[in-house]
Amino acid sequence: MSSDPQQANKFNLKVLLVLSFGHLATDICQGALPAILPFLKAKLLLSYAMTGAIMLASNLTSSVIQPLFGYLSDRRKKAFLLPLGCLSAGLGLSLLSMPDHYEFVLLLVMVSGLGVASYHPEGFKTARFFTGDKMATGLSVFTVGGNMGFALGPLVAILIVTHLGLDYLPLMLVFSLVFVALLVWNWTSLSHARPLSASKGIASNGTPRAAYLSVGLIVATVVMRSWTHFGLMTYIPFYFIDYQEGDPLYAGTLVSCFLVGGAVGTLAGAPLADRWGYKRYLILSLALTTALLPLIFVVQGFALFGVLAAVGMTLISSFTVTIVMAQELLPGNLGIASGLMVGFAIGTGGFGVTVLGIVADHFGVPIALKSIMLLPLAGLLISLLIRYPIGQSAVGPAQTEAP
Hints:
It is a single chain. The chain is mostly helical. It has 2 domains: about 5-195, MFS general substrate transporter like domains (Growth Hormone, Chain: A, Up-down Bundle); about 205-385, Up-down Bundle (Growth Hormone, Chain: A), CATH 1.20.1250. It is about 75% helix and about 0% strand. The longest helix has about 35 residues, at about 210-245.
């Protein structure tokens, strides 16, 4: 594989797949943690509040501080964050079975969370260098690894703990070790990745104030999308299990259909966004989500699975699109742009779920679930205000020069 820096600017599926596997190996730790909490609770005789604090520590360290790691990544080339972040995420999680004291469990959870937080900005930044002019398509390859990691995490962790015992949790580290091996094999190409030419305009002349305003509006849009995403994941089970007294397996399958639809939408929507334009696709995805979401209260049976899969496809398909938009608006700060989109904006989804919980406590679960329908509409209205592209800094795919 060529190590020519100019080659790094071309679409390179092999390197993107390596980075995507690292994304899987990192996010599988986030997905696994909730699944093993009951076992940690039983082993250490924890209260529900103490168990909840474990998740809080994980969320704070893995999501909210990602822009800080993005800032550090932009200050100087830090490709070492890729293996270090993935290993840290894996080590922190895999060693959770060993401590007999709650404080050490919290420490390990934070180590794992910091690994997750450090991998994502550097990973999205590095992946951007190998997308060529198919930015959304390339980043979707990287993104789907994280989707798969979240989906596989609970399953793999439960299989290990139930069949072998909690003491065998260190087997989860295998994913991180495989990624490091793949990374070493491709290190020359990865370490020579360089930003695109400064012909992008604001990369060399400073970022216009309008670009920061647009990024702020994109963040606000992503917050609305994130609240919708996490709100549906949380309150669909509550609605069908607690309110309608339905089968828990049925409710869990509905959530799975929603998430699988999101993974499919991530891959299928990105090429369309590259072709149609990123802002246009973002508006379209939010408009379709706004139109489809009320149907979950209308349809029943098999059709409900189809509706939730469609909602997942339309809602989550813009994930990589918003990352590309932020990176194009801040070409000299790709790490910060990625950290804002992936970490901070998505991390606030937990805050949205808390607000919905207050609504559910006071007005009932159906009202909380129905109130979620307002969120993609709010995101749609905000997205209409985004100024994109700005000058020569954020050209759409039709205007992008060949590398």
